[in-house]
Amino acid sequence: MSSATEVRATRLPVKPSEDAVGYAKLNAVYGALLLTSLVATRERARAEPIRGVELVPLGAATFALSKVIAKEKVGTWVREPFVEEHSDGRPARGEGIQKAVGELLTCTRCVGAWSALGLVSLRLASPTAGRTVTSVLVASAANDFLQAGFNWLTARSNAGVQTSRKGA
Questions:
Q1: Boundaries of domain holding 127
Q2: Residue 97 included in any domain
Q3: Distant-in-sequence, close-in-space partners of 124: CB < 8 Å, separation ≥ 6
């Protein structure tokens, strides 16, 4: 046996960490939910397809829902079993699946993928309920942007007032 073959033969696969197993389980659940949504939609002959113009409101609704879950105080009850809430950050608790869920729940982009799956699945399963929930979340997202714009304008205005007072 050559030395290259011996080196390859002695390398063993690394045992995945508890955290890696937790991430794999989360990915498996997400994939199973996505597949279930696809199969359920295919089974419903009368399923109303999502039109292209609905993607923008669904995106805004996903933004609002993921922000509430991952960042807002009202979402603390969802995060609490998985995340330690501190003023300087939110580290995930435990290990394995608990840690994986904790890291998911503090990442708006990660929660966004799950939120999008839920909203699209709801829209496909029950178009009226899906549109209603999406409308509420779109209004919430619009409120977030308007509040941010108002805060920016107020800060800019206050900075301008302070600058003009210094020059007087």
A1: 18-139
A2: yes
A3: 37, 40, 41, 44, 47, 48, 50, 130
Rg of the chain, C-alpha, whole Å: 23
Of the candidates 25, 44, 24, which has an alpha carbon nearest to the alpha carbon of residue 121?
A: 44
**Tokens read off for 34:** 């996505």
- CA-nearest of 113, 124, 119 to 138 is 119
Q: Which one has a higher pLDDT value, 46 or 155?
A: 155
Q: pTM for this one?
A: 0.78
Nearest-angstrom CA–CA distance, 84 and 103:
11
- pLDDT range class, residue 12, cuts 50, 70, 90: low
* Structural domains of the chain, count: 1
- Flag whether 149 is in a domain: no
For 168, half-sphere exposure in the C-beta direction (CA atoms, 13 angstrom radius) is 6
Tokens of 17: 């960490």
Q: Which residue, 23, 20, 24, is CA-closest to 101?
A: 23
pLDDT tens figures, 114-134: 999 999 999 998 999 999 999
Q: What angle do CA 27, 28, 33 make, to 5 degrees?
A: 100
Tell me the CA distances in angstroms from 9 to 2, 4, 47, 163, one per residue in order.
Answer: 11, 9, 53, 72
Domain membership of residue 28 (yes or no) is yes
Please report whether residue 125 resides in a domain: yes
